[in-house]
């Protein structure tokens, strides 16, 4: 599999970085507004997570006014 930036071994691509840039959010702003640890946001931002926490995902989507598909995408072989 040809890995893309922000893609983990399962073929999931995390696009939180793009959505945050479009909406004018920094990692710190997202942390404060969603009451999340910086390390948590950093993991989603860089695609360095192995398990998705639905509470975290819902909090991010609510704050950024976006859908899950805007943040996470599956790319098959």
Automatic annotation (TrEMBL):
Q: What is this protein called?
A: Helix-turn-helix transcriptional regulator
Specify the species.
Answer: Ruminococcoides intestinihominis
- One Pfam family hit: HTH_26
InterPro entries attached to this UniProt entry: Cro/C1-type_HTH, Lambda_DNA-bd_dom_sf
The domain of life is Bacteria
Residue span(s) of domain HTH cro/C1-type: 15-77
